[in-house]
Specification:
Distance between the termini: 33 Å
Radius of gyration: 15 Å
Strand order of the largest sheet: 1-2-3-5-4
Strand content: 25-35%
Number of helices: 4
Length: 126
Amino acid sequence: YFEDTCRHGKLECVATVIETTPGLSYNDQLILFRIAQEALSNILRHAHARNVELVLESEDECYTLTISDDGSGFDSEQVKSKRSHGIQGIRQRVAALGGTLRLESGSDASGTRVIVRVPRSPVASE
């Protein structure tokens, strides 16, 4: 999905995704997919980016999903006050996973980074 959407949007993309996700249910995986989908949609609509990177990695007791672009960026305080539907949707999904969301951006054309950290559920031993 990520690569196809980038190609159609004329974006260069790099995706680095771990192969297995123990402690992450199918539903949680779907929620992370929807978060990435919304972030990419926002990039296509607003960022005027040329490059996008998506990374899903496992760290200690959590998973980290990072979506970065080299677009125009935005004023994060202004987005908070506008209650942007896309960002609000991401926030709600992250909260449903018991995770944290960090937005790194500025209105100085430095791009944007969306960082989502979600806890890993205990995996039943076999």
